[in-house]
Amino acid sequence: QAQVVESGGGLVQPGGSLRLSCAASGFTLTTYLVSWWRQRPGKEREVVARLSVSGDVAMHADSVQGRFTASKDDAKNIVYLQMNNLKPEDTAIYYCYAESSDGAAGNYWGQGTQVTVSP
Fold first, then answer.
1. How many Cβ atoms from other residues are within 10 Å of residue 115's Cβ?
2. Fewer CB within a 10 Å sphere, N or C end of the chain?
3. Distant-in-sequence contacts of 65-73, Cβ < 8 A, 24+ apart
4. How far is Cα 115 from Cα 22, in angstroms, rounded to an integer?
5. How sure is the predictor about 110, in pLDDT bands with cuts at 50, 70 and 90?
């Protein structure tokens, strides 16, 4: 069964760091566009970062630019989101989304991982 599973969330103090992982199984990420999204309490889901198929090019939302970094390890079939200098407003459920680059295969959302930034 093809799926992506996020992990690495938790409770952290403001200014702290976390690294989220998105592990794919049942398919390879080498032909997928992968993005990180988050849904903050009472708000719509929003994109945080996008990676190109190669993983060489990443787009980060203005709200996290300079603090978050998305990356990809094709050998491990995992995508990461390194989050530094976390702020209370980063509190959200974080999701990974893998989108087939040629439209021929399925697209996959993970179940999400909770990140809470609080003193």
1. 22
2. N
3. 68/36, 70/34, 70/36, 72/29, 72/34
4. 14
5. very high
